Structures
1.
Amino acid sequence: MRITVQSDPFDMGAESNAFAKTAQGAGAIVTFTGITRDSANADLDVMEIEHYPGMTERALTTIAEQAMQRWQLADCLIIHRYGRLAPNDPIMMVATASRHRADAFAAAEYLMDYLKSRAPFWKKEITKSGTDWVAARAEDEAALKRW
């Protein structure tokens, strides 16, 4: 299990390959990478992501441990960036490995839903028309109810 909170960009392919090499006994590996998307008006300059070091890593470790216990996982990975990100920059990645695909898919979705709604990150969009903090979305909160 590896949890990384970093400002530097990451290489999705390299991270996936490295994860696959360490996933002993796995028959399935699921990866997901979230990309910083532009606003509906296509005027996003940058997204600034803030977090509290230490607290963030502890929270992500807790949810990864819960996923490892809930599903038959051989391994899991969470990478999440902070700082200034441009549109189309990779913002986060999860990877799960298990003997069977159902556990790998379910655990990956669980981690993604948690990261979207409960992980202690604060996002601010800086656009051509101003600055706004990103608010929680009802559909993201609703996704957590299935777990």
2.
Amino acid sequence: MTRRFISTQPVEVGETAHLIELLYDDGAHDGTLICAGHGGAVEPGTAELALEVAMDTDDASCWATLGYEGDGSAFDRFHPPSKAIDPPKYPLLGEIAERGFEHVLSIHGLADDEVLVGGGANTARKEAVVDRLDEALSVPVRVATDGQYTGTHPENFVNWLAESDGGIQLELGPTARSAQATELRRALGAFVRSAE
């Protein structure tokens, strides 16, 4: 597969703020998509991780946004709920919205120092991710079973981008996104390759 960057596209630009989206894709691939809908200064490290995993994998595409605000309020300005991320506001997302990816992995940041695995995928698939990451990381890794991090809502972009309405949503605490980012990237890459 020959993948390419479709030019990053500004979504919102202000005096001290900007939100851009990027797409790493070949225009037709429908195997694995790795997302980071709250990258940049919103949930630091997530977009970089998503892109690195996609680039290290032979058959994966990546869609991400990167939000920055000069006064430090990027999270407040550019963090819509995952079920509010949709193609009308994100043109590059619109280019892949109808493709029906076999596997979708969405990477998010979390304040607590742990990793939560959610999304609409079946429990066995989420537990397989937990097992893979638990071996690689020193922080607790568990399936999100209740609350805002379950990621199971059908309007959550990780679910409607997946052909079977069942993506994986990863909520990554600070250690997983910084001190152990290399270990996490390797483990996610191995997981993605095993799913292809």
3.
Amino acid sequence: MAHNLAKLISSTNNARMRLRLLAVSHFLDGKSRTQIALFLKVSRTSVNKWIHAYLNNGVDGLKEKNIPVA
């Protein structure tokens, strides 16, 4: 599975998605959520959300949601 993440990371042009995939990859490698947040220079809350989304919905959980504009 980590091999598939590496392919996705290198093939995506979306910087936000790449950051989420990197976070998950580091998590699967055994890094703590705090270590990941420090390394990627993002909040631990964001890392927690991304990991939670990945564990519940796989890579699809990391995709950005289209929010309708009122």
4.
Amino acid sequence: MAQNQQQIKNIYQMLFEIATGNLSYRITEESESHEVNEVAKTLNNLAEKLQQIILENGYVNPHYTYQNLVQITIILNSDYQIISFSPNLPNFLNSKTKDLINSDFINLLSQKSIPLWKKIKEEVNNDDQYHNTIQLILIDNQKQLVPTFCTVYRLYFSNNIFISSVTTILQDITTDSSKAIPRKSDAVIIQEVYEYIMSHLEEPLPTLKELSHIFGTNEFKLKDGFRHFFNTSIYRFYTEQRLKQAHALILQTNLPLKEIAFMSGFNDYTNFSKAFKKQYHYPPSDLKRNKE
């Protein structure tokens, strides 16, 4: 049973990796369940096929930056109208502040979530200490659906209703179309550099000169090609991925923070903490950890 649970966890991890453009990730473990193993095998084949198609067409696999734990807070009055919200809500919903303030919260919901919201309102009206977490599908100003888990609750001695959400969002990296598109061979090299970085996050990053030697190119092509496809420098990408790995380890394990810093390629915890805070706007010690 534990083996099956671990394999299912690996499947979820691979789905996330594929979604964020990491097509080099593979599931190598096996479970006791034939059905679970077949799903893992299918995902491995899918990632391999996608990787092959992308390279054959002269592209680097799509890559996304992500903002982990985007925290949204909305405050409603007793009539369930929005009276305040966190500064990132307008951007999250592609809306203007003036269009959100004093509007009915139900206007932010998809048709599918409206019946659920009406039921929640009834429960809130009958329970001064209501506190529940449910999935609501919000709809942004461009009519795009945004599924998100929301915690709905009241504070003591208050008639206001609070809605908070912690969501992971993906953001496309755009490229400058005015720049010349690298040749297919250049795209293959950048793909290989990407995969090298992703599989060596715990090690120091080689210099541009060393990387260009490893992959048989020159520093200018390497630097320019990577920025074209990923809209960032090689070093910045490497640092962001190390911090992403550290973030996941903090949430999913009970390893000491100093050990996680070391596993993520940081020899000094102070430097790790500073880089982490710069990336996520809060220190690693602020994350709530898995208690299992």
